[in-house]
Specification:
Strand 6, helix 6 (149-159) and strand 7 form a beta-alpha-beta unit. By secondary structure, the chain is an alpha/beta fold. Mean pLDDT is 87; it is low at 104-110, 234-240 and 262-271. Helix 6 runs parallel beside helix 7 (177-192). It is globular. The protein has 2 domains: 8-98, Rossmann fold, CATH 3.40.50.620; 138-266, HUPs (Rossmann fold). The longest helix is centred in the first third of the chain and has 19 residues, at 48-66. It has helices at 16-32, 48-66, 79-89, 106-109, 112-117, 149-159, 177-192, 208-218, 234-239, 242-247, and strands at 8-11, 36-42, 70-76, 94-98, 124-127, 138-142, 166-171, 197-201, 223-227, 255-258.
Length: 271
């Protein structure tokens, strides 16, 4: 069960973008009345005491400025494995993490952000700049053919406890019964929760992801919510998977990233 007192995990590396993640965490922590866990990952375990002292000093500045509760953790190991392991062990509500466009071989071997998030049971919020406002008034919800859209709707419901948002159901211009079924299910779900929504159909002039991102920018969306593919192949990474387009979108809109769960196949309406 998701509860508001579960902590918010922020992987932190002293960069400007990780400071942005902290600012998002501070905002959310105050809204859901939760603590923040700042995690710094080190290359060599011999520096653990030194790095913990440095992290605690940074956290103290944030605590004094914003009045939030922060716990500091230092871990050694592979970044993607450590973040997921810590998120699971502390039963994090969400992981708020910086992201940036993939560089060099990351374009072929998947970006670090996607490698970190793949397979996680905890949702991620990836950010590229500091929050512009406190409220989340507009959320873009791309509709596709996959069965796992249900998980995104569950998180829309959770977010609705804390924010009054309009949900923009963005569907591609395709004649696919799976997309139609998912759209109808989403409509019934949102209506059942008395949540405001709008349906938008792409024009098929760009990729579905590009059109959804441009629409999110035009409508001043504060969040895009997406689902990672179960299997991200070397080839799809090479040509540019849609998830990467969302995560490192040029408008720097925050993106909530979820992973599909096997049991979601059982839900009626996503067949």
């Amino acid at each position: 069960m998701v509860t508001s007192n579960r902590p918010i995990l922020v992987p932190y590396d002293y960069t400007e973008r990780s400071d942005y993640a902290v600012k998002y965490a501070v905002q959310l922590a105050k809204i859901i009345e939760s603590d923040i866990v700042m995690l710094h990952i080190i290359d060599t375990i011999s520096k653990e005491a030194e790095e913990l002292q440095r992290l605690e000093k940074t956290a103290e500045t944030i605590i004094n400025k914003y009045g939030v509760s922060i716990e500091c953790k230092i871990r050694h190991g592979d970044v993607s494995k450590v973040i997921k392991a810590v998120a699971t062990s502390i039963e994090a509500f969400i992981v708020i993490m910086k992201t940036q466009p993939p560089r060099g071989t990351e374009k072929i071997l998947r970006s670090r952000s996607i490698r970190v998030m793949m397979g996680s049971k905890i949702p991620f919020l990836v950010v590229q700049e500091a929050p512009k406002r406190l409220a989340i008034r507009n959320i873009v919800f791309p509709i596709d053919f996959r069965k796992e859209n249900k998980e995104k709707l569950i998180w829309i419901s959770i977010l609705s406890k804390y924010y009054t948002s309009k949900i923009h159901l963005f569907k591609p211009k395709v004649n696919d019964y799976r997309v139609r079924n998912n759209l109808e299910f989403a409509k019934r779900f949102l209506e059942g929760k008395s949540l405001s929504y709008e349906i938008i159909t792409g024009e098929n002039k760009l990729s579905s992801a590009d059109e959804a991102i441009n629409y999110a920018n035009e409508t001043d969306a504060q969040l895009i919510i997406i689902m990672l593919s179960k299997n991200v192949s070397w080839f799809s990474s090479l040509i540019g998977i849609s998830e990467q387009k969302y995560i490192s979108n040029k408008h720097k809109i925050p993106v909530m990233v979820l992973n599909p769960k096997a049991e979601l196949h059982k839900y009626e309406g996503f067949n």
